[in-house]
Recover the amino acids of this structure.
């Protein structure tokens, strides 16, 4: 590459020398002969101008090529940047679509629930029973408040439990963490129906009788399904935090963490349906 450039430079130098010599000759003729216009025109047209063109053209062409190469490099950079921005934009559009679908779903659920609800009451937690296999709370609402056996009790974030005993001034609520609690649920991502059972000892939940080959992921959200009318539908129960595939056994062990912090809850919500 360097040799060819050197050869080109030498050739340009000789052409430049010839051009200078012809220019000097042209000037000399102008001085010596007053009527040398014709000769000077011939020299300019047939010698100086062609040689000047030959000298200037490669350099101009080379500069043009280098400029185009620079432009192409800049264009490639812009294309790469635009491709990255396009990928990011597509990802954002996908996220927006997911959020819009979730908003539509939640609005549908809200409409279904509010259409059935006549009244809402807030009750205080007045006593706790955290003995193994007897996890329950006593709330400050009873028959005087139209509380019914089997009524769904929930908190700001999700499901708490179900009324199992009603007194005049208070009611007993079996917590979803108790081993006697079985809640029909649905996995939001897949729509799979499951049963959520309490574990008592660690304030966690489990999915009962779920096969090893089930489509499950850590973080999957589980809500009440409303099956059999035992609980209000679409209340959040918890998220999967551990999946253990038991080799040689039919069912997996799937641990669920409650959405509601049941140990620290001080108030609960009751709803009363339209008659």
């Amino acid at each position: 590459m360097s040799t060819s450039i050197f050869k080109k430079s030498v050739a340009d130098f000789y052409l430049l020398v010839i051009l200078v010599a012809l220019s000097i000759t042209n000037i000399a003729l102008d001085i010596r002969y007053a009527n040398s216009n014709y000769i000077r025109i011939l020299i300019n047209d047939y010698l100086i101008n062609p040689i000047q063109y030959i000298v200037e053209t490669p350099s101009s062409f080379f500069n043009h090529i280098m400029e185009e190469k620079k432009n192409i490099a800049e264009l490639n950079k812009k294309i790469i940047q635009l491709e990255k921005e396009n990928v990011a934009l597509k990802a954002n559009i996908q996220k927006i679509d997911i959020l819009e679908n979730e908003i539509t779903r939640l609005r549908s659920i809200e409409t279904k629930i509010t259409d059935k609800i006549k009244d809402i009451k807030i009750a205080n937690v007045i006593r706790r029973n955290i003995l193994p296999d007897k996890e329950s709370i006593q709330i400050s609402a009873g028959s005087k408040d139209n509380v019914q056996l089997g009524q769904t009790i929930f908190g700001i974030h999700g499901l708490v439990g179900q009324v199992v005993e009603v007194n005049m001034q208070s009611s007993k609520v079996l917590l979803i963490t108790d081993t006697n609690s079985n809640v029909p649920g649905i996995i939001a991502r897949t729509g799979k129906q499951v049963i959520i059972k309490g574990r008592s000892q660690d304030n966690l939940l489990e999915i009962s009788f779920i096969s090893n080959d089930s489509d499950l992921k850590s973080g999957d959200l589980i809500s009440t399904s409303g099956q059999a009318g035992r609980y209000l539908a679409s209340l959040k129960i918890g998220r999967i935090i551990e999946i253990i595939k038991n080799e040689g056994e039919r069912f997996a062990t799937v641990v669920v963490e409650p959405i509601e912090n049941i140990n620290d809850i001080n108030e609960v919500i009751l709803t009363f349906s339209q008659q």
